[in-house]
């Protein structure tokens, strides 16, 4: 996923875009991850979405929202990859699956491990 994100970022960079739009990856103190990706002025159009929380228990959770073409997501300490996968899923507009089904499948795989 990190390779995909790097390539996506590279394709957006045009001498101007990268000065005004950011990708943030931070840690949370609960513990967990927070990611924010500004996709304004890209070829990606995603409708705003309220905060969507998927929680199996206190240690297995993830949530995201989209507001004004900014993807914001957080999750427990093992969810950084899934946070990036969700952004990838949204950018690729995977019509064969819904985002809810995708996230629930990923969370249930984590539960099995």
Folded structure, characterized:
This protein has helices spanning 2-12, 17-20, 80-92, 99-112; strands at 23-28, 32-38, 49-57, 60-67, 70-76. Helix 3 (80-92) runs antiparallel to helix 4. The model has no long low-confidence stretch (mean pLDDT 89). A hairpin with a 3-residue loop joins strand 1 and strand 2. Helix content is 37%, strand content 33%. The chain has a 5-stranded antiparallel β-sheet, covered by helices on one side. The radius of gyration is 14 Å and the shape is globular. The chain has 113 residues and is an alpha+beta fold. The relative contact order is 0.17. It has one domain (2-95).
What is the ordering of alpha helices and beta strands?
A: HHEEEEEHH
Work out the count of structural domains: 1
Order of strands side by side in the largest beta sheet?
A: 1-2-5-4-3
Q: Ends: how far apart?
A: 20 Å
| Overall spatial form | globular
DSSP strand content: 25-35%
């Amino acid at each position: 996923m990190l390779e995909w994100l790097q390539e996506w970022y590279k394709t957006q960079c045009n001498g101007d875009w990268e000065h005004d739009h950011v990708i943030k990856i931070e840690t949370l103190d609960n513990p967990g991850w927070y990611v924010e990706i500004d996709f304004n002025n890209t070829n990606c159009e995603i409708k705003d979405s309220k905060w969507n929380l998927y929680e199996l228990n206190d240690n297995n959770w993830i949530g995201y929202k989209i507001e004004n073409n900014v993807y914001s997501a957080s999750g427990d300490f093992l969810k950084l990859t899934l946070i990036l996968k969700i952004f990838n899923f949204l950018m690729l507009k995977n019509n064969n699956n819904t985002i809810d089904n995708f996230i629930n499948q990923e969370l249930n795989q984590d539960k099995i491990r």
